[in-house]
Give the backbone structure.
Amino acid sequence: MTEPQKSRGIIGFTTTVPVELIFAAGYEPCDLNNIFVGDPQPGRFVDRAERDGFPKSMCNWIKGIYGVVMEKQVEAVITVMEGDCSNTQALAEILRYRGVRTIPFSFPYDRDREVLSREIEKLKKELGAEEGALAEVETRIAAARSRLSEIDTMTWSERNVTGGENHLWLVGASDMLGDIKKYADGADEFISRARTRESMEGIPLGYIGVPPIIEGLYDFIEGVGGHVIYNETQRQFALPCEAADIVERYLLYTYPYGIFARLEDINKEIGLRGIKGIIHYVQAFCFRAIEDVILRETIDVPILTIEGDMPKTLDSRTKMRIEAFIEMLEGGPC
Ligand code: SF4
């Protein structure tokens, strides 16, 4: 089976969407978040947004996405209007105002199968994805996702994958870096390499919340005796659950359906993986910080909440708090 011959262009998106449809329509998918934080100078995208009038007191992920779209040549941006970020509506409006084609997509908050099915059909038509091409993409992407699932399992069962590697492989699954085969082959090669390593011994930790905007978090955690063996949202981006069809696959995906859908998954993985403590990352000015209240009252292992703002290295205060948290866990009952 082969990739589509010639790409029709790049389709950007603001959070995980049914990426199968983009590939099947012959476009190259691009998760704008990954372009933002993967850039050697991500702060310039935030600066661009602020120069264009975005307020200082606003989440820098949104500003970064805007800055990326202003620089990158995209055919269109799929904006997730429900099931992601409370700022996306205004982002979609400013992008349209700037002449960017935007395609709205929504995950129904109540996880209604019929509504999601309609949304997927609508997106399929809008992109021009054919049924035959979609079936072929689904086969190829399932094989790639099974390798990512193996990397994730190795992280907690064999303990030979670092938290940072787990994060990078799973977060990249949202667009497979534009090439399913290359991503799957890279994952295969990584699996073989990781299997030659010794097991890591740090305190097993979980990371929950949106992916971090800050750099060096995982390396620091490992340097002070922890090992992140579960990245909640990133794992969800890799669609870890087996499903009968595309609609079911995106119904089992927890991230868009609120804190209670997420909690079920988090608590299950804490038990399965033997996680001793949770690091909850919240982004400055993000509405999701409110969810910390519920998480603290419903998760049975200790939680450390940390906050990031700009795409830059971990600050000293957060480092001290992480170190103290891991020391506290080391001193606790095993
Ligand atoms: S961190 Fe929160 S406010 Fe920022 S883009 Fe993500 S969901 Fe939106």
